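Could you show me some protein's one-letter sequence and the numbers that encode its backbone in two labelled lines?

___
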Amino acid sequence: MTQIALHVGIDVAKDRLDIAILETGELFTLDNDEAGHAALIERLSGSPIDTIGLEASGGYERAALKALWRAGLPVRRINPHRLRQFARAAGINAKNDRIDAHLIARFLATLPAHPTDLDPRLELVTELVTARRQLHAELGRVNNQLEHVRDTALQRLAKRRATRLHADILLLDKRIAQAIAGDRSLAHRDRLLRSTPSVGPVLSATLIALLPELGRLSNRQIAALVGLAPYDHDSGKLKGKRSIWGGRESVRNVLYMAALSAGVHNPVFATFRRRLRENGKLAKVAIVAVMRKLITTLNAMVRDNKPWSPASI
């Protein structure tokens, strides 16, 4: 008899994993440690698994994800926003760990999820880039606080914290550069990306760590993955404005800063932005178009293994 393909949802907490198998109705809990991961792999191995899903959970899911991937099991990292949208569409308002595990399993059985492709070479770079992004966000909050406090003691504390954060960010920049330079393949990709005027070390490292699909997808797919593909808002005779939505915000935020520079200092993108503005496009629309053109250009460069060339744009 044909075996039913199983969809497995895993809700991840710091200390434990709640696992639900949709088709059999099984619900069980394991520790989120090496022993628990080994027990999970042993329990699932040999079963007709279609997909296993873990919701991105602030990093607590990484060890389990890596263990399942190394065991050759079809594991997926689920976007939390898509999962919440699915729950609302399904009318699921209750929330606890077991409900979430079952929800993930239902999500996998209903909607496709991109395969998780872990690259051991990227682990350190990804960790460093993520830490840098978090420190940069904290520095922004401290600087905002500094603009509004009036007490001199609080001002001193905020300035001291900002100085420390700035020094830590510079230290991480050096560590990221060393990690990339230490791997021949990553160093080559870094040189390709940074051959483009207005692409600096921060954007290059962000793309290497957080957008490993660069060069492996079509231009439209890579734009959608970053959240730069325009979507229609039409219904009947109503023709709404097209807008971007979703995608990897952490990549998009860094790309935005690079696009601001490219739209002024890179002759190709500056001409492109100026033409859009002359044709009546709003400044925000023009900069999003520059972002989309920049990421698709970098995608083609990595795909073709060719450095920046204005003639090929």
